[in-house]
Amino acid sequence: MSKKRGLSLEEKREKMLQIFYESQDFFLFKELEKRGPKKGVISQSVKDVVQSLVDDDLVLKDKIGTSVYFWSFPSCTGNQLRSVRRKLESDVENSTKRFSELVDQCEELKKGREESDEREEALADLKSMELKHSELKDELGKYADNDPAAFEAMKEAIQVAHAAANRWTDNIFILKQWCSNNFPQAKEQLENMYKEVGITDDFDYVELPSLPLSAVAD
Prior knowledge:
The chain has 7 helices and 3 strands, in the order H-E-H-H-E-E-H-H-H-H. It has helices spanning 9-23, 29-35, 43-55, 74-110, 117-141, 148-182, 187-196; strands at residues 27-28, 60-64, 67-71. Strands 1-3-2 form a 3-stranded antiparallel sheet. It is mainly alpha-helical. Helices cover 65% and strands 6% of the residues. The radius of gyration is 41 Å and the shape is flat. The longest helix has 37 residues, at 74-110. Among the domains are: 9-72, Arc Repressor Mutant, subunit A (Orthogonal Bundle); 145-215.
């Protein structure tokens, strides 16, 4: 015996609409949950089906006091469908008009662009100039490192890095002095700890390097 096929979403929508059309009454959601199974729509599906009808303006709902009521009359649905149809017809008319305008615009743009020897020659010249522009752009990129603006930016970056490095050097010296003052008995252990993290006897401030003038092309 074959298994009975379940209702599709569209069929469930039609069944729920029948409840409204046949009674032409107002319903609470709990009432719809009870009536749905009688039409073949299981109660667990009623909420989603009714909400889809509300979203499509086929069922109306409103809150009265603390209760939410749902209703739909054949005349209301007909008016809504007619309204949708008018909107779609208006959209089609506007789209058709816009299409016609674009066709006219396309034809207008074609004027003066007809195929000819002069046009082919101009297009060839344009392609040649675009290729030359690309080559010159690549060539210019090779000299980017010698750009005066890039050189000045490099100098500023070095100065910022130099100041930051020496600021941290100051902090390290201050910390070492504090440790020496507060833990004099642990001098040897502290010295070993400093060496482990790279703070040796020659640890000192960083000197600002000087960039050669040759770094910038004449």
